[in-house]
Amino acid sequence: MTKPKTVYDHIRSNNIKTAILVAMFPISFIALIFLFCWIIMPASDAFNTMLQVAIPTFIVCAVWMLISWAFGDSMMLSGAGANEIHDNDPDNKKIFRAVENVALAAGLPTPRVYIIEDDGLNAFATGRTPNDASVALTRGIINKLNDLELQGVIAHEMSHIGNRDIRLDMFLITGVGVTIFAADILFRVAMQSSHNRDSNDKNNIGAVLMMVWLAFTVFNCIVSPLLQLAVSRKREFAADACGAHITRNPQALADALRKISERPTVKNLSQSKSMAIACIAEPRKSFMGDLFSTHPNTAERIKRLESM
Question: How many CB atoms lie under 10 A from the CB of residue 205?
């Protein structure tokens, strides 16, 4: 008889898989540059070209990440149309207390609490560290869920805070954004070089630039999206398991996900991919089903929670 997986088993398994997937981003990026350059030049030259491209790209990613680190959370909350509530707000005091109690159970500082005036059922967490984190809940999720289910949702978001998933999301979004920008510049430079037919040297430079651009394009259009979706799904499974551990009530979160799946669409949250990744459920209608969804299948999430 197979031994049932515990919460700790789920958390450990998802963390290992996430680490492997994150490591695949730089590995696949470097490998693609080398392989495409190797098509038109010796391996030693391809290796040198790879270094000349990869190192500046990683430096720009680091700089842009620092900028996102400073302003990313406020931009997300503003874009979501979220309004902060406080413990002395009589209309929302119950919600603030629920977040405060879950934070205490999770052993984390109480985050700032925001409400999005939308009837859709969704929630997300943001912030640089647990000490300056925020949790945003839609009015729909507050009105639709009972107290235990709402605690399960809050615990899920607190798990993202405790697991530093916010930092991971920022790393992925920022890194992909830089490579897309770099690919556009490379394409323009490569096209300009192709018009210069005065010497073989210029033609060779244009060919190298085109190969590097192709490597960036394959990474941005195929490899990176698939890896990003896989990482996002693993972190959602991990947050479900951690949330169940905090409340000691996996069934409540499972029931909450059933209700959320009926109406997860939120206008302000569906406008960008970065917002979708941060939410407890995919806030956008997907025409490709689960294949390109930022979240795992809800039925599978519920199945895992009910097996704990």
Answer: 16
Distance, in Å, from the CA atom of 175 to the CA atom of 164, rounded to the nearest integer, reads: 17
In one letter, which amino acid is 10? H
Rounded average pLDDT over 131-153? 91
What integer pLDDT is reported at residue 142 of this predicted model? Answer: 92
157 assigned to active site: yes
Residues 6 or more apart in contact with residue 56 via CB below 8 angstroms: none
Residue 226 confidence (pLDDT): 79
pLDDT score of 72:
66
User: What is the dihedral angle through the alpha carbons of 260, 266, 272, 278, rounded to the nearest 10 degrees?
Assistant: -40
On the CB side of 231, how many CA atoms lie within 13 Å of its CA? 25
- Give the H/E segment covering residue 137: strand 134-138
Phi, psi torsion values for 136, nearest 5 degrees: -115, 130
Nearest to 102 by CA among 245, 200, 284: 245
Per-residue pLDDT at 131 exceeds 80? yes
Work out whether the CA dihedral 226, 18, 272, 71 comes out positive or negative. Answer: negative
Is 216 within 8 Å of 136 (Cβ atoms)?
no
Supply 193's token pair. Answer: 């070089």
Q: What's the pLDDT at 107?
A: 87
117, 149, 157, 236: the active-site residue: 157
Report the C-alpha gap between 152 and 194 in whole angstroms.
58
R_g of the chain computed on alpha carbons: 22
Cβ neighbours around 66 below 10 Å, total = 10
Which 8-state DSSP code applies to residue 279?
A: B
Structure letter (DSSP) for residue 128? S
Give the amino acid at 193.
S
